[in-house]
């Protein structure tokens, strides 16, 4: 349906959406599922700057009217608008026209309207379980705050002192803390008694400063809003699948349904699975105090080479920190070095893994008197020396370091490398007459909140959900949709006959293990690929004028194993997209060949089928590249079963590139060009074996000529070539072209196939050339045949 041009959609809402309207009319005008989620967020963040009056709605609103088959004006979806008055002190009470229609005009004591109220409270309850939690809100706020952290000072400088307004613009850290305080803490009981929600007015008491919201935070308000003694009991979930949470063995069990309204009130239940992200940002210990260091204390100037990565310190002494002489702030040295020298040198190595997950390093140094610290030969920081002091062996420190405590120094991660890193430190005295000098050091890494380029996965977004099950199902198996190595949460909830949903169960969190897919690795192959078919003929275009070349593409799979295989967890995930659970068959028998095609109608037309044959499972999406690409057959959510990266150039069969042949798998895993040949059967030979049966004589089976050796010139250099005719579809034979200088030692690694010319029948002329120019007037070449 087209949208109206006279604003009647908008005017109907602001003039007629009132409590006086009946339920059917209300459902025609508003998408209540959308509004319930929208207004749940309004209640969460206290985005209350709205009232149900017509004047305010002439500006500063965002409405979308979705097309409706039964309402020419469409159904209202309310969208977010300016949210500056949220997450704290604000105006008004969040009563928009839809809320007024289903809760009435009494803002202090709103009365929910039948199923509308139940549906809204169910939505709030669900979002409280899955969204409004300290963990999930931190996952939303903290990465965003980190992204703009370095821009905030410039933005503050732009607006501080502005003549308009009296707002205060604090740094971002207290802003983030205030948002979390609003969400989950409320009244400051340890300090001034400040309340952090924003006023007492005509709203329900639980939303006011002196109610649950002000006392405990917005989470307490949401809990009070949806409190209902008639709810079904919150179920418990347990794991009942295979050990190790394998991708193909996940199943879960729910506790029994229980409802305070009595027996026989079960209506439905629902299961869900969601990938979740855990925030990083923790501190990783790289080097603890008490480290063993190599050191040199012979009062000889080591120059600068000693601090480099490749310096050999094997002749130095070794000792445990603290190292030095005398006592530094009462600390006894674990290793005593030579006393009354100006400088001593120290080296150690630390291993750093996952450097991309580190945003900074923090050295903690206690030193008497001064020190310069190097990381992989580069100066990282100095303590007790002025920035412009040129430090040498006989240079005494400009001042004493902090002998009473550890100083902290932040160091850029660019100084470090993945793996082993060299930490070098030269410690200097302030006086040759000093009776103490030494140091102790530790090193920590501050991890990033999220890996670079990774967006957080929120629990609200499901990976899999059961939908509403109207028969109680105590145990459920989850299809193989979860990705190996990622973290997921499973939950379950129950609904009673009044339409009340329980809270979601507490989450059961786990990391997905590898599936047991050996039977697929042993049995399933991508057996043919028709990636560049012949273009449509005149007769084909006459039958279906819209046909294109790509409509005739197809891929064949084959089960070469000993038993049948279940296809329901297989899918093509690269090159083309096809989920076998949607195919016309759910299993593949031993020895069976099945196809997925680009266009069923085109396939049937070209191959002469009046009806779609049983071996065609369905249509895939996307198209195969004529120039070559990667095709991946996966189990579940991306676990590799087979993968092919084909090409349209040698050593791949060139006759499969637009000449009517398909690529046919012959041997191996299918990753190499030598694992494939062109088809010899008509139109790529779908669903048939066009290989030549072996009859007992390899030479007669595989070869159609004797080899011929020639010498060719290229670029002023001479190469040997070996050419022969072969039977294209002699799949049981392996032909090796071997060379030798003495007829004793033979190698098949000195030549490469440079051409293959296909004849009219089932033969081709193959030419191999030496990898490098020949350097001797004598050489020997042969063909070696092996039976596969």
Short description:
The chain has 788 residues and is α+β, with helices and mostly antiparallel strands.
Explain how this protein is built.
With 788 residues, the protein is α+β, with helices and mostly antiparallel strands. It folds into 5 domains: 8-131, no CATH class; 231-280 and 450-514, Immunoglobulins (Immunoglobulin-like), CATH 2.60.40.10; 283-447, Galactose-binding domain-like (Jelly Rolls, Sandwich); 518-684, no CATH class; 698-787, Immunoglobulin-like (Sandwich), CATH 2.60.40. Helix content is 16%, strand content 29%. The protein is built from 14 helices and 41 strands. The strands form 11 sheets. Strands 6, 9, 12, 14, 17 and 19 form a 6-stranded mixed β-sheet that branches. A hairpin with an 8-residue loop joins β1 and β2. α3 packs across α5 (114-130), α5 (114-130) runs antiparallel to α10 (218-225) and α6 runs antiparallel to α8 (172-184). The radius of gyration is 37 Å and the shape is flat. The protein starts with 7 loop residues before the first helix and ends with a strand. The model has no long low-confidence stretch (mean pLDDT 92).
Spell out the key features of this protein.
single chain, 788 residues, alpha+beta, Immunoglobulin-like, 5 domains, 14 helices, 41 strands
Using DSSP, what is the number of strands? 41
Report the portion of residues in β strands. 25-35%
Q: Tell me, briefly, the overall form.
A: flat
Specify the number of helices: 14
> Major β-sheet, in short?
6 strands, mixed
Radius of gyration: 37 Å
Mean pLDDT: 92
Q: What share of the residues lie within helices?
A: 10-25%
Number of domains in the coordinates?
A: 5
Q: Kindly, what is the distance between the CA atoms of the first and last residues, rounded to a whole number of angstroms?
A: 64 Å
Computed structural class: alpha+beta
* Low-confidence residue ranges: none
